[in-house]
Design a protein that fits this description.
about 525 residues, alpha+beta, 4-stranded mixed β-sheet
């Protein structure tokens, strides 16, 4: 008995997230082309066109080359920004932005819109938050939100003056001696994340205190925009408007190229009230370190800054609202970052105004004619949801398989007619689903990659095994308290989730109402 127990004690843990066979990998990679072979209509062909459009084939281009290409593109955009700053700084007040509308009149109206949204600059706005992203002082593995509520923190020289206001507005920070081990830095640090097979995407790691203050501004703009019908916590409105635009043709969807990297200093200076510009200019990173070399930016803020998303949303909304007013074209103006929706008849002049301020309308993702519209991840053709799903890297594990199969099922059910027009999709789904252990079938969340959506009661699910990262207990308490203080406020999510997730998983039984479920039968239905 003792020997038997000793043997059990040495039981080896096995990863439940097993690796996929080459056959399974081939089936997943070829899914788009196989769907296209079912039907030659727009829906199937569009899925095939999009399915591998974001695929990162690391074997075709090495990481150093992709990173170099991304940095080169970022620096090229800075040259464009420099020209935009120069042009806007000397523009004549009598210049006609629109027919019979002077620069002076257009800017006065646009500034008033932005002033109404921002309201007065109050001390309480300095109280922001942290994300779990890396900062100039912490690598991603050490950058949990609680750990940032700690004495150690970086900041730029312009931010020191706001520390007494933080202490006054958040006295709990001083009580626990937060932000006492401070280091001055020149600015942010540029890094890249995977994007496509030939190029990465650039973002910046901000100094800790700068990020804290930036997120306070972002949260304020986000809250104030809701008063004007722009809810940056909800993408569903833009998706519904895109559907309406594809059906009726009355609304256009615009998408901008490198939008956040195109917000120039002079654009913000000219559009925002002076007190707001000066504050945002102080708390942004005015320089970025690129491989140890300091670059003074022409852009106002980049991806990674805590208010970039909200600021660009505010600017695009105000510019399009002003254009609509002066052109005498009423209708819906809706924005979510650089996803912009305007009346179709406003598209030419709206695009012109955006270009005037240094923004570039992406012709491949902007639509004002025809039956197709796209916004906030929603793709529509004549009112039908044709939103594709993507395979972004080579599938290697069971979780990759589950994610693709769940997204395929969502695609089939997105339109009520698709299920019956394409009955062959059932066999295709069943072929892939059969590669998933039957006890992981069940549930109804298409976003999961740990449980297969199927019309049966769930028995088990995969649970990722995470490392034992150390978390400051004081930081955990402060983070909890701070969340309660801002419990009515939804802050933006991470801009750059990693393409590489933890592959180690345990299998755990599903418990509902204290009862572990047992499946008595199996239903083979889509």
């Amino acid at each position: 008995m003792q020997k038997h127990r000793a043997h059990l004690g040495k039981r080896r843990w096995q990863n439940a997230n097993r690796r996929l066979s080459e056959s399974a990998v081939d089936q997943l990679v070829s899914l788009g082309s196989r769907v296209a072979g079912l039907n030659d209509d727009f829906v199937c062909q569009y899925l095939n066109d999009e399915y591998l459009s974001k695929f990162l084939d690391e074997s075709s281009c090495d990481a150093a080359t992709r990173r170099s290409a991304a940095i080169s593109k970022w620096l090229e955009q800075e040259l464009v920004n420099k020209e935009t700053n120069r042009r806007l700084a000397v523009i004549d007040e009598g210049f006609n932005v629109l027919p019979r509308v002077s620069w002076k009149s257009f800017m006065r109206f646009t500034r008033s819109l932005i002033q109404n949204v921002l309201g007065p600059l109050r001390d309480s706005i300095v109280v922001g938050d942290f994300s779990s992203g890396a900062s100039t002082s912490r690598r991603r593995t050490e950058a949990s939100r609680p750990n940032k509520f700690a004495p150690k923190a970086d900041l730029t020289s312009e931010v020191w003056q706001y520390l007494p206001i933080i202490d006054r507005e958040a006295p709990l920070f001083g009580q626990y001696s937060l932000f006492t081990d401070l280091r001055s830095v020149e600015g942010a640090i540029l890094f890249t994340v995977p994007k496509k097979s030939d190029i990465d995407r650039c973002a910046c790691k901000e100094p800790d205190i700068n990020m804290f203050l930036q997120k306070g501004v972002g949260a304020h703009i986000r809250k104030r925009l809701r008063r004007f019908g722009i809810d940056l916590n909800d993408q569903s409105r833009n998706r519904e408007l895109a559907r309406e635009g594809s059906l009726l043709g009355t609304l256009a969807t615009l998408d901008l190229s490198s939008a956040s990297d195109s917000i120039t200093i002079e654009t913000v200076r000219q559009l925002l009230p002076s007190e707001w510009f000066l504050y945002l200019n102080d708390i942004r990173s005015q320089a970025v370190s690129i491989d140890g070399e300091l670059h003074r930016t022409e852009m106002f803020s980049s991806m990674g800054n805590g208010f970039t998303f909200e600021l660009e949303s505010l600017i695009f909304w105000a510019l399009m609202r002003a254009t609509s007013y002066f052109e005498g074209i009423p209708g819906v103006i809706s924005v979510y970052g650089d996803d912009i929706i305007i009346p179709s008849t406003l598209f030419p002049m709206g695009s012109w105004v955006l270009r005037l301020f240094g923004f570039s309308v992406n012709p491949k993702k902007s639509f004002h004619e025809g039956p197709f519209r796209e916004s906030c991840g929603g793709h529509y053709y004549n009112g039908i949801d044709v939103t594709p799903f993507y395979l972004k890297r080579k599938p290697t594990h069971l979780t990759d398989l589950i994610r693709v199969v769940n997204q395929f099922r969502r695609w089939v059910f997105a339109d009520p007619f698709r299920r019956y027009e394409l009955p062959a999709t059932y066999n295709m789904w069943l072929q892939l689903a059969s590669l998933v252990p039957k006890d992981l079938w069940g549930g109804d969340d298409y976003a999961l990659d740990t449980q297969l959506v199927a019309p049966v009661s769930p028995i088990s699910r995969l649970v990722r095994v995470t490392g034992d990262a150390k978390v400051s207990e004081v930081g955990r308490y402060i983070a909890w308290h701070h969340s309660n203080r801002n419990r009515m406020l939804t802050l933006p999510s991470e801009s750059f989730p990693s393409l590489i997730t933890e592959t180690r998983c345990r299998k755990r039984r599903v418990v509902l109402n204290g009862t572990t479920l047992r499946r008595e039968f199996f239903v083979e239905e889509l």
